[in-house]
Amino acid sequence: MTFSWIASYWSLLSAGAVQTLLLLVISVIFGFVLAIGLAFAQVSGGTMARCLARGYCTFFRGTPLLIQLWLFYYGIGSLLPLIPGLRQSLFWPILREGFFFAAVSFTLNYAAYEAEVLRGALLAVPKGELEAGRAFGMRPFTLVRRIWLPRAIRIALPTIAGEIVMQLKATPLAFTVTVMDLYAVASKVRQDTLLVYEPLIVVTIFYLILTAIIAFAFRLLEAQVPSRR
Amino acid sequence: MATEPLGILDLLSPYPPGWGGTLLVGAASTIAISAGAFLIGILLGTAGALGKLSGNRLLGLLLNVYTTAIRAIPELILIVGLYYAGMDGLNALLAGLNLPAIEVNGFVVAVAVLGFVQGAYMTEVLRGAILAIPVGQIDAAKAFGMGPMLRLRRVILPALLPNALPGLANLWMSVTKDSALVAVVGYQELALATRLAGASTKHYFIFFLASALLYLALTLVSNIVFDLIERHVRRGQPKLG
C-alpha cells in the first residue's frame, strides 16, 4: 500500500470532492422541491395530475439511474444542438457540460424516490390535526405550509436521511459522463500510477465520512422535535 | 452503416441493420446476471443471517463488518473494487497452486460481484424475517416432536416467507438496476448494448429510451410476479390494512 501519490494529486482530489458534494447538494435540494409537488399531486391532485405524477415516479424508479443519465447526456445532449440558436446562446457553456446533465438526471431521479417517501408521510399525518387547522379557518395553502408539510417532513425524516445517503452513493456514476468527480479522480490516479486499490480506498473513506456526517446531522435534526415513542 | 436514413422501426428491428436484437440479447443477459446474483445473494444471506443469529461473537463481528461495509460503500466503487480484487485474488490463488493465470468470463465476474453485494442486504432482510417468527410457533413444532428439517420445511420457511418477501422483492428490483453498473467494467448487458447501438447509429435518444422501457417492463412484470407470490404465501393470513 502506497499513499505517497496523495500529495501530488491533492488539488485534483479536493476539486473532485467539491464536484461530488455539489452534485449531491444540487440534486437533493431541487429534487426535494420537485418531490413535494409530486407527492401533493398524488395525494390531493386531480385524476390527470395523479396519473402524471404516478407515471413519473414509476418511470424513474423502474429504470436504472445509469440509463437515465445516459439518456440525458447522450440522448438529449445529442438533440440539443439541433435547436436553432441554442449553440450561440448564453446557456450553451452550461448545456455543454456533463455536470449539467448529471445534475438534472440525479435531481429527477431523487425526486421520484423522495416523492414516494413524502406521499406516504403526507397520508400518515393524523386527520385530526388537519381538521383542527381547517376548523381554525386556515386556507388550504396555509394548512399545507403550517401543518401538513412540516408534520409530514417530520414523519419522513429518518427515511429522508436514508434516501440522501442512497443519493450520495449514486454520485460516482457521474464520471461516466465526463464529470471530474472524486471517483473520476481516483480512476485517473489508477491510470497514471497503476495503483488499483489505494485510490478506491481513499474515495471510500471520503464516502464513509460523508455518510457519518449525514447520519449525525439528521440525528441532531430529529432531536429538535421531541417525540413520544 | 446504411446510407439512407433509417426510421425508428428500422432501427429497433430485431434483424440487422436494426439493433433490436442486440438490445434483446443484452436484456436477456441482464436478467441472467440478476438471477444468478440474486440466487448467490440468497445463499450468502441465509448463511449470514444464521451466522448473525448463532450468537458466536467473532462470527457476528465479521458478518457485521461485511454487511456494514457493503451497505455503506457506493455500488460502483464496490463493483470496480471487487472486480479487480476478485481477479487478483483468483490469479494469486492459481499462482500459489502453480497453475497458469486464466481470464475469467465477464459473466461469472458480474454474477459473483453482484451476488456478494446482494448477500449483505439479504443477510439483514432474512435476519429480520427470522426474528419476526413468533417463538410460540417454533416451540409448538418442537412440542409436536418435529425434527429440525421437518420444522424448517413445515414451520420456519412458511412463516418466514411472508416477512421476507417484500424485502426480497426490493432486492430483486435493485439488482436488476445495479446490473447496469456492470457496463462500466465492460461486460455487455443491456446498458452497454444500448450504448453501442447508440454510438454506431448516432440515434442515442431512441435507443436509451427503448432500453429504459425494457428495464421498466422488467420491473413491472417482476412486480406482478412478486404480488402473486406474496398472495400465495400470505394465504390464510388476515389482510393488512
SSE map:
The complex is a heterodimer of chains A (229) and B (241).
Chain A: H1 5-44, H2 47-62, H3 65-79, H4 92-95, H5 98-124, H6 127-135, H7 140-170, H8 182-193, H9 197-224
Chain B: H1 8-11, H2 20-53, H3 57-72, H4 75-96, H5 106-131, H6 135-143, H7 148-178, H8 190-201, H9 204-233
Describe this structure in words.
The complex is a heterodimer of chains A (229) and B (241). Chain A has 229 residues and is mainly α. Chain A has a domain at 22-179: Orthogonal Bundle (MetI-like fold). Helix content of chain A is 79%, strand content 0%. In chain A, helix 1 crosses helix 5, helix 1 (5-44) packs antiparallel against helix 8 and helix 8 runs antiparallel to helix 9 (197-224). The longest helix of chain A is centred in the N-terminal third of the chain and has 40 residues, at 5-44. The radius of gyration of chain A is 21 Å and the shape is globular. The termini of chain A are far apart. The model of chain A has no long low-confidence stretch (mean pLDDT 90). Chain B has a single domain (15-232), classed as Orthogonal Bundle (MetI-like fold), CATH 1.10.3720. The mean pLDDT of chain B is 86. Chain B contains 9 helices and no strands. Helices cover 76% and strands 0% of the residues of chain B. With 241 residues, chain B is an all-alpha fold. The interface between A and B is medium-sized, with 34 and 36 residues.
